[in-house]
Amino acid sequence: MTVHLVGAGPGDPGLITARGLDLIRTCDALVYDRLVARELVDEAPAGAIRISRESLSQDEIDELLVAWGRRRLEVVRLKGGDPFVFGRGGEEALALARAGIPFEVVPGISSLAAVPAAAGIPITHRGLASQVTAVSGHDDATLDYEWLARSRGTIIVFMGLERLGAIANGLVGAGKDAATPAAVVARGTTDEQRVAVASLATIAEAARKLESPALLVVGDVVRVRSLLAEPATRELLSA
Known about the structure:
This protein has helices spanning 18-25, 38-41, 58-70, 89-99, 111-118, 145-150, 164-173, 203-206, 223-228; strands at 3-7, 29-32, 49-52, 75-79, 103-106, 132-136, 154-158, 181-186, 194-199, 214-218. By secondary structure, the protein is of the alpha/beta class. The chain folds into two domains: 3-106, 3-Layer(aba) Sandwich (Cobalt-precorrin-4 Transmethylase, domain 1); 111-228, Tetrapyrrole methylase, C-terminal domain (Methyltransferase, Cobalt-precorrin-4 Transmethylase, Domain 2), CATH 3.30.950. Helix 3 crosses helix 4 (89-99).
């Protein structure tokens, strides 16, 4: 029996891996994130234990996974995106390893590339960006704005919607060009997807009506979105 740390993908339930879906359909217990699509939770067997992690601390989740693992249950810990990309999957894996509980990590499609792609934004593009820097904006005070402002290519900020103004100001204040293209993609890959595009200096105002979860994309690749929407200019993308 094993605890499976499964990535649910970026939002659209159809983007979970075949392996992940098979595990949900055969599990004894399912612990799922708040943002996981309800359709995936409903795939668990009728008799399976189902618990939302919303009211649980990380320590409580770790303890629960260990306890169920010791009961020799087939446990699925269903996490948004990929377990090891800003998903705290590493912490849960370490807790299981310390307790001697067998576990498996089942990667998921991360929002890192999938959400911008759903909005028509490639995070790398020849001649525009060959480097991607991903950071968490949950605590913007911990960001090294000077380093980020100097970094080349595309900047992706997870969990930064509530602090979007401070993040944009921090980047501009550290020397990032205020006119740098930026986009916020909210509820990416789902039917509720919404996108705001503006300069870095004005992106916070442009995105003020959007709701979490959302991803901030900063860089010249944002310009590709408008080109993809204009068939007559698509030839420019391969120039």
